[in-house]
Amino acid sequence: MSKVFPPIGRRRALQGAGAAVVVLGLLLWWLLPLGEDPPSGRITFSTGTTSGVYYEYGSRLRTALAEDMPDLDVNLTASNGSQENVARVATGQADYTIAAADAVETYEREHPGASARLRGVARLYDDYVQLVVPRDSDVRSVADLEGRTVATGLPRSGVRLIAERVLKAAGVDPAQDITAVSEGIDTGPERLKQGKIDAFFWSGGVPTAGLEKLADRFTFRFVPIDAALVAKMHQQDDTTGYYRATNMPESAYPTIQNGATVPTIAVSNLLMTRTDVDPRLTEWLTRTVIKSRDGIGRHVHSAQLVDLRTAIYTDPLPLHEGARRYYRSVKP
Q: Fewest beta carbons less than 10 Å away: which of 1, 168, 257, 314?
């Protein structure tokens, strides 16, 4: 004879229903973030050169934003890089951008008052300085670039800023001791392959698509930038404090590095905006940045390093109020 389960009491039934409502509420909070209709309108997002990580990350983020905020029109614009990006946001030509911390600090020092209107949204990932030469080049150090033709990055790029500082720290005057040419990741790899330049600087997340493509058709290597040189850079001026000595992972470009790391410099990238940009929109955007990490990271390796625990450290920029709201909402 089968057992008959005892009837559930009214009190227990109400408790169970209450628990179910709480669980459902939490699920709805996750699926329908912030409990309100998504922001709409139009924003401009400044990225970087089309072969660089900024542009690819921005393109993937725009797709993620379209899923969370379908009525938000995101205008994606290319740029020369960090220095131009900071200026665009500061002057209202763009609403959001990505820029290296050293470029942000430099802009604020050169434009008194800019710090009052610039704000951070999230610390994203690190850029690595990549000094590239042909495999058979006799350039073994930064000092060996003297007398060579070197691509130091596009005007107003983060690459140009850091390349000139690296050269000066090595005792090489970028204005007199080399033939400096304005080539970025879009054109520098092909110019190197053609023998029209002896070396080029690049600063970006790894791997960078432009260098991956070059590795498929040309054998090159990286010139190390050792910790002693980084220490000299720190003595140049206090805006170089955002540079740290590190090693580029051996997995960045496996066919080029052959299992070896490369001593170099890293600098943090920041997602940034202005104080006058809508806090509610920025709160939603911040959530999308964190939520889309794994999805974007499947295509942009650097995005895998976006971390909720470190995203709040946007020095030298204080957090935007909208970003602050989001981080407070998810704080354990």
A: 1
